[in-house]
Amino acid sequence: MDTARTLSANLASLLRREHSALGAFLVALADFDRRRAWMTLGHASLFAYLHRELRLSKAAAQYRKVAAELIQEVPAVGDALGEGRLCLTSIVEAARVVTAQNWETVLPRFFGLSRREAMEVVAELQPHPGPPTRTIVSPVRTAPSEVAAGPASAVPPLPLEAGAAGPAGNRPSGSSSELTEREVNTSTPTHRPAEVVPLTADLRRFHLTVSDRFLEKLQAAKDALSHARPGATEEELLEAGLDLLLEKAAKRKGLVAKPRKTPRAAKCDHIPAHVKRAVMERDGGRCQFRLPSGEICGSTHQLEFDHIEPVALGGASTVENVRIACKRHNIISARRVFGDGWMDRYAPGKASLPAETG
Ligand SMILES: [Zn+2]
């Protein structure tokens, strides 16, 4: 634990230096751009200078170009980057809405956000005028960027995570040559994750690559529900399907609306449904494991019911003694109680920890 703390302190210190160096670099780059020094060195643009002379990838060059331009307009952006409050990948989004007039209120809204979260803020501040709600099905043959956008899309698809694809972001002022480079750089991954583009505060455009089989099932569901839900949209059908899945998962977790009677001779590690329900509600369906920082984990992934005082040590399956924990933290808790030796001997790997033990 002590070694881990020392290593962590070292990482934190290195990270501060990384942020500070990045901030200093971008402030200097803004000054370099202001003087048009790239032109003096014979480059066509700041982007070309970054890519050709400093050998940055196109994506890295684009992020830094946008940041340097924004810093010239709003110097506070340089401080925010240097202090690590603003992430370089979200700067492209911030640059769409932050101005010399509004930065004091708008810039802080981007602090600590990922690019995807930043896109949501932009969509809220600058809603898409008349967001398209059509469903478009197009065969996937050519570059995924074309398909993902669909013929009716007015919003260019952007890679959601930094480094996933080409230089992201295109300020309205961005030159067309740089946009072309962005497109060229888009690779052709076989498994492209679904893309979500925020359009307004609560509307998202969802790009999804599906199989023919999926479309057939969708059509079959449409037909099957043509009487019960005539004219249901694809979104409504899919949402209804998801509701069914969630209902099923909730039942499995003991969240059924009507509790069954608790069996009188329940096994001691069995958690009664009413306890599960109360625990689930109290913990808000999130892992309650407390991290060294004092925050709770909060994960909603692979949740399990964890006995705070283990059943093996006499802990009861009561609301007070049961909490929600994600699988990883359930294992960590068990290792803390029983020790690594015991766990390795009796529960090697711990990959298949039953959902009700803890
Ligand atoms: Zn957790």
TrEMBL record:
Domain of life: Bacteria
Pfam families: HNH
Chain intervals with Low complexity compositional bias: 160-169
All residue ranges annotated as the HNH nuclease domain in the record: 274-331
Chain residue ranges for the region called Disordered: 145-190
The protein's name in its UniProt record: HNH nuclease domain-containing protein
Record organism: Anaeromyxobacter oryzae
